[in-house]
Amino acid sequence: MSKIAYRKIVVERFGGTETMRPVEATLAEPPPGYARVKVLASGVGFTDLMARSGDYLLQRKVPFTPGYELVGEIVDFTPDGPRPAWLQEGVRVAVSLTKMAAYTEYISLPLWQLVPLPDGLDPLAAATIPLDYLTALSVLETHGRVATGDTVLIQGASGGVGQALSRLGALRGLRMYGTASAPGAEELLARHGVTFIDYRRQDFETVLREREPGGVQAVFDHIGGAGLRKAYRALSPGGVLVSYAFSGRPGRMVGDTVRGAARVKVMNLRPGRRAALSMVPFEIKGDHAWYRAGLERVLEMAARGAIAPRIGSVHPLMKAADVHAALESREITGKAVLVTDQV
Questions:
Q1: 154, 259: one domain
Q2: What pLDDT sits at residue 251?
Q3: Domain Enoyl reductase (ER), which positions (predicted)?
Q4: Are 195 and 267 part of one and the same domain?
């Protein structure tokens, strides 16, 4: 085995898209328990944009390579124990990372993070799945513990995680309301049986009070701020508020995130209702079995058509800065995917 020369995208300092540039690097042979992976496609999320600008709590150092999710092909590996039958050179795998690094042509990863793609699953579609759908599983099952027939509110239901929650919620038989405002959101949500609430023209607390006077069993929130208190008030006795992200003021998002997380912790001390935080990178790192089982499950669902991730656009890896700019200006709807020359 020899070193592999490759390129990756690096954010040199916090700021705008001008801080992103391609750099050349080399990848040494994998140590025991690791594999070298040729990246085919990487999903792009708004978390990546926040990290680049310096507004993401879990990425506070530069330089770094953005991206939490990828699909690739195993180049070589060094076992450190019994080898599963599927682990072979050339096998395509999906990965959700615990630390950003996905905008790259090659990467070295621990073997436990590699989940083989089911036969026939498009690698571009697979690259949109790991982070959004693992977050949805965490929200619905680990923290929400919702049951068939429960009524829930999904904040930002037209976003990546919102759509994952909507689809998985429909499969679980949930009654769902969803806030959104993007063009076409009402039609999109209707496909999953989600009752649309236009948050720019309607107050979700008022709508729920009128339609669900007994409250809803769960609220899934990625906004924070004053909406957390309103969401908590919308819960039925015994209901749960699950926060999986926080929005905030530009330049102050880290502080707003810390305050939002603290607010959720305080809410959970009150009797009668629950509040919880979903932080998937930590959950992946802390429970490898949950990660592998969850990702295998959603990939299989995609392969058989039970879920249909929506690819908004596909771009060369080296155009990552342009993709960030297009996402910030809302020129791209749906999930953006970066591809290497290898796909």
A1: yes
A2: 60
A3: 15-338
A4: yes
Residues 273 and 135 in one domain: yes
What's the pLDDT score for residue 110?
98
Predicted local distance difference test score (pLDDT) of residue 55: 85
Task: Enumerate residue ranges in the chain where pLDDT < 50.
Answer: none
Domain check: are 122 and 30 in the same one? yes
Tell me how many degrees the CA angle 160-301-299 measures, rounded to the nearest 5.
Answer: 70
- Three-state DSSP at 301 gives helix
Give the strands of the sheet with 151-154, arranged side by side: 194-198, 175-180, 151-154, 216-221, 235-243, 274-277
What is the Cα 332 distance to its own chain's centre? Answer: 17
Q: What is the DSSP string of 61-119?
A: SSSB---SEEEEEEEEEE-SS---TT--TT-EEEEE-SSS--SBSEEEEEGGG-EEPPT
pLDDT at 343: 52
- Which pairing describes strands 151-154 and 175-180: parallel, antiparallel, or unpaired? parallel
Residue 239's φ and ψ, nearest 5 degrees, are -75, 175
What is the distance between the alpha carbons of residues 61 and 276, in angstroms, rounded to a whole number? Answer: 27
CATH number of 106's domain: 3.90.180.10
Query: Which DSSP state fits 239?
Result: E
Domain extent for 208: 131-278
pTM summary value: 0.92
Final residue belonging to a domain, choices 235, 254, 278: 278
Residue 121 CA, chain-centre distance (Å), reads 19
**How far separated are the first and last CA of the chain, in Å rounded?**
23
Sign of the alpha-carbon dihedral angle for 192, 193, 195, 196: positive
Tell me the sheet residues that pair with 221.
243
Q: Does residue 10 sit in the same domain as residue 33?
A: yes
pLDDT at 248 (0 to 100):
52
The answer to whether the beta carbons of residues 176 and 158 sit under 8 Å apart is: no
Locate 289 and state its tokens. Answer: 């079995």
What pLDDT does residue 167 have? 96
Number of domains in the chain: 2
